Amino acid sequence: MISELINERLIRLNLDATSKQDVFNELSQALVDNDRVSDKAAFIADVNAREALGNTGFEAGIALPHAKSDAVTKPGVVIGISRDGIDYGAEDGERSHIFFMIASPTNGGDHHIEVLASLSSKLIEPGFTQALLAANTPSEVMTLLTQPSKESNNTGPKKGLIIGVTGCPAGVAHTYLAAEALEKAADELGYEIKVETNGSIGVKNAPTQDDILRADAIVVACDKQTDMTRFNGKAVVEVGVKEAIRDGKGLIENALNASPYQAAGTSKQSTNTNAPSTGTTNWRSNLYRYLMNGVSHMIPFVVTGGLLIALSLAIGGEPTEAGMAIPEGSAWQQVLDVGVIAFQLMIPVLAGYIAYAIADRPALAPGLIGGWIANTGSFYGAEAGTGFIGAIIAGLLVGYFVKWVSGINYHKFLQPLVPIMIAPITGTLFIAALFIFVIGAPIASLMDSLTAMLTAMSTGNYILLGIVLGGMAGFDMGGPFNKVAFLFSVGMIASGQTQFMGAMACAIPVAPLGMSLATVLGRKLNIFEATEHEAGKAAGAMGLVGISEGAIPFAAQDPIAVIPANMIGSMVAAVMAFGFGVTNSVAHGGPVVALLGAMNKPVIALICMIAGAVVTALVCVSLKKARKAQWLQSAA
């Protein structure tokens, strides 16, 4: 495959580029000169669009920019080498020296994935990158790329079979690099290996049931959800995909000494004490994986529901005293209703799939039900549910509870009922009772206390009130704090004090607009996941019509950085609105309300919203960047 897509004219040994965009420009020109690309600007735009989903700068000075593009007339790969290196934003923070730019036609199959898989076997070879950097002519590079891989020195009988599973969130380079690393390590240890890759072109090389039965150990080096129940009773080690690239041999040795894995609903859960990551690091890694699973399943509901609601309100909505409303009989009401259904489902889905990540299928139903109860305040006498924060709590509690229930050593006659009846029913009753009888009362009491506090403050300092209202608006985006601030402001409209709703209307869209802007500002810093970049586009649209829930996926995935940023930006918007005397006579917020004439100073109101969104974006990017730098330092 490599020899079909590259030739000596597509090799640039001494790049003049001094920046990432210069690299794209210089390598793209080589593709144009060799009749692989018809429109250079369009191809670079597609490369940048792919880069926005996740930085393609990897460890050891290697970068793999790629794109599927209508501008590609014939698939090709161009290689560039920078002697001084480029600040590409690589994951290890080092400068990048070797660039493989892969061009694939939009309808020409998955050439870029196939090439990445082929290159992985080369890139993982000891000394290959050093030899590539030392090459003086394009022919030497071609020789390095096309020469057969070194034959295994271990030709004797194999000790046994190892099964590997690799996968990264983007499903591209790390997936195949990890697979190659495991294959090489297994060969050195004298084992046969079969590696399943969970890449962007789907699951490939999945082991059969017979393979699993005869396997001596399983290595799951995967950052995405995979079916673990099939490995029940086998020695298993679970780590992130990068661990396989760093130390494939060590992972296999750990897996061979690991305790048998017990899937939920089979028998007592064993703890694998031989896994390389333990203690606080392992706990944080698992928690992140659980949250990522919930967020990734929730995002389609947020995007679908948010955009349908935004579209219906923006086109068919009119400002009324009760908020933005669609005239009776309008077809846009049905569009709005469908969007509302998606929004109602997103919180239960978040909770359900967090629970699923912890305890597999037996936890899914109670997790979904627990999320619905958590988000429905009427179950426990509150005016609003607990929002996404309650969903995260419900998902984690259900997951660990079901994992414990499933781990009990049941009689063999009861064992088949555990995953389909015992665990789901007990998990549902547990989380329902917890929210209704334990968590619910404090939540309802908290909302009453917050309302009383705001009422007492309503005649006081508007700057302090703006800070409190804005902070509550940005804290939980539809949860009890946000809802109390909103309902208080709506209630003040009836008494003729519309300045409170004016401040609230300016604070409401700050979180989604700020997160949308943050994903744009943070593209080159590689601080957002690929799914977040897509969610950022939808969040921007939701923010325009005052749907604060558009920021929930970001807050659920990284609450430490996102929630403070949302609160600070919302505070700025609310304080500015109070200071400029902005008022709002309808129970809704966002730019759409200002543009439709419900606010007395629409231009000033828009400035307040923009200022808040900019502050939120800058704070979020700064916090994420600081945490990434800290992580890189600790990893080093």
TrEMBL record:
Residues 287-623 form the PTS EIIC type-2 domain. Residues 162-257 form the PTS EIIB type-2 domain. Keywords: Cell membrane, Kinase, Membrane, Phosphoprotein, Phosphotransferase system, Sugar transport, Transferase, Transmembrane, Transmembrane helix, Transport. Residues 4-148 form the PTS EIIA type-2 domain. This is protein-N(pi)-phosphohistidine--D-fructose phosphotransferase. SUPFAM superfamilies: Phoshotransferase/anion transport protein, PTS system IIB component-like. It is an enzyme of class 2 (transferase). PANTHER family: FRUCTOSE-LIKE PERMEASE, FRUCTOSE-LIKE PTS SYSTEM EIIBC COMPONENT-RELATED. It is found in: Cell inner membrane. It catalyses: D-fructose(out) + N(pros)-phospho-L-histidyl-[protein] = D-fructose 1-phosphate(in) + L-histidyl-[protein]. The chain crosses the membrane at residues 294-315, 335-356, 388-405, 417-444, 450-473, 485-518, 563-583, 603-623. Pfam families: PTS_EIIA_2 (PF00359), PTS_EIIC (PF02378), PTS_IIB (PF02302).
